[in-house]
Amino acid sequence: MITCVLSDIEGTTSSIEFVHKVLFPYSKKNLSGFLANSTQSEVTQLISQVWIEHLGGEVGSKPDLTEVIKQLQSWIDKDVKNPILKNLQGKIWQSGYETKAYFGHVYPEVKDCLVTWKKSGLKLAIYSSGSVEAQKLLFKHSEAGDLTPLFANYFDIAVGHKREVGSYEGIAKLLNLAPGSILFLSDIKEELDAAGQAGLKTCQLMRDPKPVPGHHQQANDFNEVDKLFLQA
């Protein structure tokens, strides 16, 4: 019996285009100014991490901010799933959301389905490569309003990468649920493969653009997910 729905974001709850054509360009455009002007100690520590761990800077030396920015922008261009970048992007995106430069995209039926599932007693959780902070910002400032009260848990690559079986085993343990009671929703075949090997039930969302199909049960939207898995 399914007691939890664990959902991806890009291509699942939200458009891939929103992430790649709105969020990524915004973070790249505002990265330099943000790093130069931020007084947050956490940001200073993250800059030092890039300098020392990825650019060969000596411990205790002053980071070359120009080189750090080049490295981060390169990661943005290549969509590198680096936790330092994801953390910094979340902080930059917060400004964009709070100033209403954009709203988080969610597909039209997502809110109603999430509300229905929560009311039915299902636990709802998110697992995305974006930081937990960035996930919460997207759903708090979504086009459909503040959706954060609907989710019990958020997971990012701190638990492991999304194509690794151990990540899903770890999430099941953190949720204190049997893997077979968790339904994982994603558009990415390799993520679903890993989740399935960990014992989770899986469903591939076939949003536009159409993803590479796998052997998993497929649905065009959350309404179809509901009919396939969650209706008594």
Description:
- It is a single chain.
- The protein is an alpha/beta fold.
- The chain has 2 domains: 4-16 and 104-230, Rossmann fold (3-Layer(aba) Sandwich), CATH 3.40.50.1000; 19-98, Transcription Termination Factor Rho, Rna-binding Domain, Chain A, Domain 1 (Orthogonal Bundle), CATH 1.10.720.60.
- The protein has helices at 16-37, 41-54, 65-78, 83-98, 110-119, 132-140, 165-175, 189-197, 222-230; strands at 4-7, 123-127, 153-155, 182-186, 201-205, 217-219.
- It has a 6-stranded parallel beta sheet, sandwiched between helices.
- Helix 6 links the parallel strand 2 and strand 3 (153-155).
Q: Which structural category do the helix and sheet elements fall into?
A: alpha/beta
The domain count comes to 2
Radius of gyration: 18 Å
What is the terminal separation in angstroms?
Answer: 10 Å
Strand content: 5-15%
Element order: H for helix, E for strand: EHHHHHEHEHEHEEH
Main beta-sheet annotation: 6 strands, parallel
CATH topology of the largest domain: Rossmann fold
Strand sequence of the main sheet, in spatial order? 3-2-1-4-5-6
Which percent range fits the helix content? 40-55%
Low-confidence stretches: none
Number of helices: 9
Shape-level CATH architecture of the largest domain: 3-Layer(aba) Sandwich
Q: Give the full name of the CATH homologous superfamily of the largest domain.
A: HAD superfamily/HAD-like
**What gross morphology would you assign?**
globular
